[in-house]
């Protein structure tokens, strides 16, 4: 594993026709998702070999983890403050993590309320999953990972109070290595997206962090200022003291919350 490599064998796999085919689909899909997500801070955890934040417009975007990154980080113990990030992208991190649920807990911790997470993973119930079962002993990337189903990921997200958004599945053909077969089997991608949408070799899931019972709290000085500003409007409307019993600003309805 080279110093700039986030997973052993990743560089070599990304240079193969199959690796380029998978990355092309994932980058296009994630580009479409993150382009409409706004905020201030976005981080990509893992796979710095590909830029999954290139279509996002947040002022601070960086890659963290191992390899050629701006911030070295342990995915299970992120070096970021709680509620400090607006977007986290996890490309093929969970299936190669020793404790994937802990990684998600850390993502939940560092995201602001209403923050976004985008997860890319390999589908165990696909032709890619079949290839993994057949090649499990070889240990080459990406066939040695513990592939996680979409349903399991969504269950974990729900336990952490995430609301699942959109999801997509792609790369329906067998995990063939030769470009000529990828070209010939392109019809399977078009047919699979229509007739077997959950059977793609890879998936992308988008979810939003929800915090139950949250409401915007107005500062006390702002409540008083707004109450004073509204008082002349009430009098101007011709309301008498009989209609509106006298109250101090602090006792008025506008100052209670």
From TrEMBL:
Bias type Basic and acidic residues, positions: 243-257
Gene Ontology biological process: methylation
InterPro entries: Methyltransf_11, SAM-dependent_MTases_sf
Alphabetical UniProt keywords: Methyltransferase, Transferase
Gene Ontology MF term list: S-adenosylmethionine-dependent methyltransferase activity
Domain named Methyltransferase type: residues: 70-119
Protein name as catalogued: Methyltransferase domain-containing protein
Organism, scientific name: Zoogloea dura
